[in-house]
Design a protein that fits this description.
The complex is a heterodimer of chains A (about 140) and B (about 260). Chain A has five helices and two strands, in the order αββαααα. By secondary structure, chain A is mainly alpha-helical. Among the domains of chain A are: about 25-75, no CATH class; about 80-120. In chain B, about 40% of the residues lie in helices and about 25% in strands. The chains are: A mainly alpha (about 140), B alpha+beta (about 260).
């Protein structure tokens, strides 16, 4: 087995091929994940406890707190994310639109069942009033599959 | 009055510290404490800021935490790969306690140092790439005169497509991990980071860390490039590092270690 190599004072990290020369500042989330381990540190004479949930909260708050730094690093997602910027109204509209379209789909589904029923009723005697202007019914074969 | 913050442990040698070590978590100049053939890189931090309660409170302050976490990382990184990184926030009452630690766990430290010697940590994250959801894929047979029904059908098929795409991407991420783990001495997976922490909304499917021997570093880098190409349109594979081997530093002083802050 290899034994630990003695300390060497020059501190030069070995060059690894395939990596860019200039080290970039570590992504904060990556860094915290590593230096804080699993979010719980108990070491030395002083105990620090960071529960996972708190760690996540800290990350988020860190990111929000360091907006300027993040911009420098090219991170500006919150400016485009409607849930995080002032796009609340846009999100509401999108949600409403979705609800309406779903409701429309349900209504149409119900309607096609009724259509089937009505077709029978129309054929029967005693249909006093003609249905109001239902163009197209019967002129075009409707596929039901 | 000061406490002693521990950055890293290395084998003691004839050479002093790298001359240009950056300032530490309290802007102090890092120094060394030696015992039993081992060398601890430490810093003197003011007790009022680093006693248990104050430290705990500081950790809730984002700027403070970021500043000190980066400072800790800078010192550890500057040690150049021979040192066993110690977790952020490892604080002793004084240097004597650090010497006692080195002596008490000399064998454990030596074993841990042997495990990371000539190796470095790489991080590989993989995100599902959802930039290409082929939205325009129209369903045949969707009733055009029933926009609501057509909408529901479209949504259902889009949802099915999304499920399949996610499952495919997740399987590819597992392949990526298996391939890279095969090139590493050790590997581990961190929990995927949430979008709030990464700023990337695509789901993270792999957050791996790999301890790679120097002799295989080039091969590892090539493998990552190959995997990026192989899984290109489905998975976005990102390489970070080299890191100090934080994820593989088996310190004998962790929560399960024998000296988890116990008094004597």
């Amino acid at each position: 087995m290899s034994t630990p190599t003695p300390w060497r004072g020059n501190g030069a990290a070995p060059a690894y091929p395939g990596t860019s020369a200039a080290p970039q500042p570590a992504n904060l989330a990556d860094l915290l994940e590593r230096v804080l381990d699993k979010g719980i540190v108990i070491a030395g004479d002083i105990r620090i406890n960071l529960l996972d949930i708190e760690l996540l909260t800290i990350r988020i708050r860190l990111l929000i707190a360091s907006v300027d730094r993040a911009r420098e690093m090219g991170i500006d997602w919150w400016e485009h994310d409607p849930t995080l910027s002032s796009g609340d109204r846009r999100r509401d509209l999108a949600a409403e639109n979705r609800r309406l379209r779903e409701r429309l789909g349900e209504l149409e589904a119900a309607r096609s069942k009724e259509d089937a029923g009505e077709a029978d009723a129309d054929a029967g005697p005693g249909a006093a009033e003609p249905p109001p202007a239902r163009k197209g019914t019967g002129t075009r074969p409707r596929r039901t599959s | 009055m000061t406490h002693t913050w521990l950055y890293a442990v290395a084998p003691a040698g004839p050479d002093p510290l790298p001359p240009d070590l950056p300032g530490g978590v309290a802007d102090e100049g890092p120094r060394t404490v030696t015992a039993d053939g081992l060398l601890a890189v430490v810093g003197s931090v003011p007790t009022p800021d680093f006693d248990s309660d104050t430290l705990q409170r500081h950790l809730g302050e984002p700027q403070w935490l970021e500043r000190t976490a980066r400072a800790h990382h800078r010192v550890v990184s500057a040690l150049g790969g021979r040192a066993l990184p110690v977790r952020y926030g490892t604080v002793y009452r004084d240097d004597d306690r650090v010497r006692a630690l080195l002596t008490a766990h000399a064998d454990g430290f030596r074993a841990a140092l042997a495990g990371i010697a000539d190796r470095t940590e790489w991080g590989v994250k993989a995100y599902q790439d959802r930039t290409d959801p082929d939205e325009g894929d129209e369903e045949d047979g969707a009733p055009e005169d029933r926009p609501g029904t057509a909408y529901l059908l479209r949504r259902r098929s889009a949802r099915d497509r999304a499920d399949r795409a996610l499952a495919d991407a997740a399987e590819r991420a597992r392949q990526v991990h298996r391939t890279l783990a095969g090139l590493a001495d050790r590997s581990t997976e961190h929990p995927p980071q949430p979008p709030e922490a990464t700023g990337v909304r695509d789901p993270m499917l792999l957050n791996g860390a790999y301890l790679v021997h120097r002799s295989r570093a080039a091969e590892f880098a090539r493998a990552v490039t190959g995997l990026q190409r192989l899984h290109g349109p489905v998975l976005r594979v990102e390489l970070t590092g080299p890191w100090p081997p934080y994820s593989f530093a088996d310190l004998p002083i962790g929560p399960s270690g024998p000296s988890g802050g116990d008094a004597e």
